[in-house]
Amino acid sequence: MKTRSLRVIGTSATLTEEIRRQAAIDLPFEINFEILDGVSCLRRGVMMPESYDVYDQWFHSVDLLWTAGAIQPIDTKRIFRWPEVRIAGQPVGASLGKGRNLAPQDRLYIQDDGTLGPKQSSLSSPLISMLPTTYNMDSFAYTRELSAELKDGELPSWAWLIDDRWHGRCTLSLDPASSVVELALAVRSAGLVDIENPADLTIEEIDALFEVLMSRKRTGHFTRLWASTEDSARILAGTSCVIGSIWSPAFYTLRGMGQDVVYAAPVEGYRGWHAGLCLSARIDDHTKDLAYAYLNWWLDGTPGAIMARQGYYISVVEPLRATMSPAEWGYWYGGEQSTERLPGSSGVTVVQPGELREGGSYLQRVSNVSVWSNIMSEQNYLERRWREFLDA
Amino acid sequence: MATTPSPKTAAQHGPERTDARPVVTGAYLYDAVRDLLARKIHSGELPSGAVLKEGTVSTHVGVSRAPVRRALAMLANDGLIRGADGQGYIVGQGKPIRMSNRRLHDILVAEPEDIDRSATWERIFTTVLDEVLSVMPFGTYRIQEAELGRYHDVSRTVVREVLWRLLDRRLIEKDRKSHWIIGQMTARSVRDSLEMRRLLEPQALGNVAAQLDRNWLRQLEERIAIALAQFPDCNPSKINMIERDMFGAMYDGLRNARMLGSIRRNQFALIIPTLFRQNFPNRDDRPDLVTYGQIVQQLQSGTAEAAQVLLRMHLERAERLTLARLRVLSLLPPPVSIPYLFSTH
């Protein structure tokens, strides 16, 4: 007899213990989360669609998942809050500020010819490749120790990631999907390499970028690179690291531990990312019903509040008014000073009264995205250079 | 946790072959002739008493006398035939029987593919070519000459011959240390090659159109129609074979050797759909198959201009899908190793 259960693969960024526990309470079927690192998750998603029912990761993975035939269309008719869905806070189809190139919505709709594109198909209820859920604007965190070494009035810049002043004390993600874009922003800001579009590097730009990175790596500029949120918090909490490109859950974990760290709003703008949920191409009809229930649940307010408490935004905000306190909404989304102690997703206090989120409200932060994470045209060349960099 | 499967490569799981290793018996002509004659003797088609003369066998089989002489000597040594006092050889122990030239010819050329008359390098070239192409999307590789020779059981001279031809196709290069290097396939190299193909292939198609064999075209059209009727359940190797004919055999008769050389040098990205189909289900190939069918129909009805336009359109459309598939391939772990190829990253 088939048990009613749903298999979800994703990363620790969204498949958190709090989400799992809440889903178990709210949904009348069993849900199994399989948590993988970013690269393994994408690889599994592409090569073994029979091994999962729902895929939860970044929007740019859709390019590969769709081409490989690993996912199937999502019928927006079955998504009850579809009319309320916003991509990065903007109505679907709107422009996304400075980081326009290959914004998440460019691959949202399934076109009449079976390809993905930014325009709704001729169907009255469009088919989409991925249901947009969480998103955020990322940068890096630094310690007070580093602040002490700054010049007067010096503003945070991505160039700090390769700055000699903190040689040997910088960490990065092992995942090239986020790190390469950030390092491209860094070398461009430092004036070392001319880069036209950090989200879509040419062969020459990749070579020039890696020439800088390999020499930094060999001389020991970077400390250990991190593989997961927990890992990144551990590294930055240690004494050997003063700056690191980390994600907001790790930053708020550090704040919850009482660490005196600052999240930067870089002058060049943020690296934006958008995540979502996909349906496996191999899912059977029965399990598909469970999957749609799970997708709808994600937009219902409760998961959005859990995600907000680790600094992530969600594509449907209306129900959050009911699932978050006004003080929480004010700090996480409104960009207002917090009026009370706010809990993180695990319940520990991560925001003290009087604190302000860097970069302002969610709409201000979105408008300050410089680059969206992306699968680059020269992806296979980049992957090879990245492996070379890791092995150096 | 489920393990991630290794991708298949054309060379290892190529649908056109069941084994990546070439059949080494037959690497020399005399071996091939000896095998052919031995098979015909064992099967009884060449009866006991049949007379085999060097000159006649040479004429019927279409190879020079030297390898035939050596093959006959070897068969005599094996006791399958015996010398007939300077009058050639006699099969088995029976009394000599005279066979008409016609009959001997029918027996010997019933399977004309029995003897591969090409030079040794030609016999392993396609295999090595596929092996080299199959790793190109995954990184930069170095070819170890001696290992290549061992793997394919050929001499250093033959290895060199193959490598120089791969160099001529711009698939490999020599680095400063004089190592043979297979450069990685990049989005740019794919785009550039497709730009060249758009310039060259419609012209080439126009040049060969009039001389294409109608029978061959009709059969190709049938195969395309079958693949389309079965799509997406058709065997991916059938689509690979259709593409080999559409872009390979189609131009074989091109008189302009320079043009043909340039075309072949720019077709390396055809490995992308082949590798892709081995790892992922059929889905996006239908429009291409439809176009192939239309091209072949136009060629049969003598409207080459229309075929050229269709081909150009196909080559324009191919870019987006080819590049998307290359990005997917970049995610796969590098293919299972081929012993003479060493990843340099």
Query: What's the architecture of the largest domain in chain A in CATH terms?
Result: 3-Layer(aba) Sandwich
Percent of residues in beta strands of chain A: 15-25%
Work out the helix count of chain A. 14
Count of DSSP H/I helices of chain B: 15
Contiguous uncertain segments of 5+ residues of chain B: 1-26
H and E string of chain B: HHEHHEEHHEHHEEHHHHHHHE
Oligomer: heterodimer
CATH topology of the largest domain in chain A: D-Maltodextrin-Binding Protein, domain 2
Residue fraction in strands of chain B: 5-15%
pLDDT under 50 segments of chain A (min length 5)? Answer: none
Helix vs. strand class of chain A:
alpha+beta
Greatest interface by residues involved: A-B, 34 and 34 residues
| CA gyration radius of chain B, whole angstroms | 24 Å
CATH architecture label of the largest domain in chain B? Up-down Bundle
Strand order of the largest sheet of chain B: 5-6-4-7
Over all CA atoms, what is the radius of gyration of chain A? 20 Å
N-to-C span of chain B? 27 Å
Helix proportion of residues of chain B, in percent?
A: 55-70%
Count of beta strands of chain A: 20
Give the structural class of chain B: mainly alpha
Q: What is the highest CATH level, the class of the largest domain in chain A?
A: Alpha Beta
